[in-house]
Amino acid sequence: MWFLPFQEEYLFEIERDGVAVVTNPKGIKYHVNIWDRPRGVCTCYNYVKAGGNYRGRCKHLIWLLQSYICPDCGNRMLLESTGRYYECPNQGCRFSVGYDSRLVYHIRSINRKELRNVRSN
Q1: Which pTM value belongs to this model?
Q2: What is the pLDDT of residues 9-56, one digit of tens each?
Q3: Cβ(81)–Cβ(97) below 8 Å
Q4: Domain of 16?
Q5: Of all residues in the chain, what percent carry a pLDDT higher than 90?
């Protein structure tokens, strides 16, 4: 997976893991969902018209994949640059030093399989 440094001027309103509304610096909102389709879906121009610049994904999808809801305090954790850990910005949180990215990958793969089973029934 690509690693893209997060740009602070973009606002993320996370509805649940893998689903968010992203507002760009100009105030335009994009709906992003990593669970829809195999590579996720975004309503931004780059994804809709060009199919994304990053192996079929746009930067909003990459950023959302690099985010995870902290299981301890509920803040949005960001993947650190090595890709090994998600870090919570809350200094009082027990995950401020890191949450294993392999665990997040495992949880999301289970959720994806469950979602496929529900859709096929």
Answers
A1: 0.77
A2: 888 888 888 899 999 999 999 999 988 887 889 999 989 988 888 878
A3: no
A4: 1-65
A5: 19
Q: Are 80 and 86 in contact (CB under 8 A)?
A: yes
Are residue 60 and residue 14 in the same domain, yes or no? yes
50 with 95, same domain: the answer is no
Residues 28 and 46 in one domain: yes
And the tokens for 11? Answer: 């606002």
8-state DSSP, 114? H
Write the DSSP symbol of residue 57: B
Q: Which pLDDT value is given to residue 1?
A: 46
Q: How many domains does the chain have?
A: 2
- Average pLDDT in the chain: 84
Which residues make Cβ contacts (< 8 Å) with residue 5, sequence separation at least 6?
A: 81
For residues 30 and 21, is the Cβ–Cβ distance under 8 A? yes
Backbone phi and psi for residue 38, each to the nearest 5 degrees, phi listed first: -60, -35
DSSP states of 12-23 as a string? EEEEETTEEEEE
Closest CA relative to residue 23, chosen from 48, 42, 37: 42
